[in-house]
């Protein structure tokens, strides 16, 4: 499902992704992105969130949850979650992901596109890395409420940090400062 060619095609749709700043910053961004992908997908083995019991519908921002629609649990490399994220991604791609969120789990290119879109447009992860805020800022952006704010990093946050350090090592770059929440 997760192919290299689909990832490259998706990344090409967002030219600043992995190409902003110095070579070290570019490598850190790719390391950060893939650390989160590795964590979220269990090393690319999961397309859908394991626990699919959560509906993840929040209508306070004005985005509905159409009747009969599947739940808005995580799908794809960064596990796109919540009705408002599916709606925004669908608008970005001129698709109705709010009505059919499972399209993200049925199309490898769309899965990669939605994850790079989220990284670049909706989560501030790209900015966090390219403006040297550190990897910890990406953890807060992606899953901060669950993994940060408890006084110290949780086991999932530590997992993300470990993956990030590993990818930085493989790419021959220092992980930089501010790795934790």
UniProtKB/TrEMBL annotation:
<protein>
    <recommendedName>
        <fullName>Glycoside hydrolase family 19 catalytic domain-containing protein</fullName>
    </recommendedName>
</protein>
<dbReference type="InterPro" id="IPR023346">
    <property type="entry name" value="Lysozyme-like_dom_sf"/>
</dbReference>
<dbReference type="Pfam" id="PF00182">
    <property type="entry name" value="Glyco_hydro_19"/>
</dbReference>
<dbReference type="GO" id="GO:0016998">
    <property type="term" value="P:cell wall macromolecule catabolic process"/>
</dbReference>
<dbReference type="GO" id="GO:0006032">
    <property type="term" value="P:chitin catabolic process"/>
</dbReference>
<feature type="domain" description="Glycoside hydrolase family 19 catalytic">
    <location>
        <begin position="1"/>
        <end position="181"/>
    </location>
</feature>
<dbReference type="InterPro" id="IPR000726">
    <property type="entry name" value="Glyco_hydro_19_cat"/>
</dbReference>
<dbReference type="GO" id="GO:0004568">
    <property type="term" value="F:chitinase activity"/>
</dbReference>
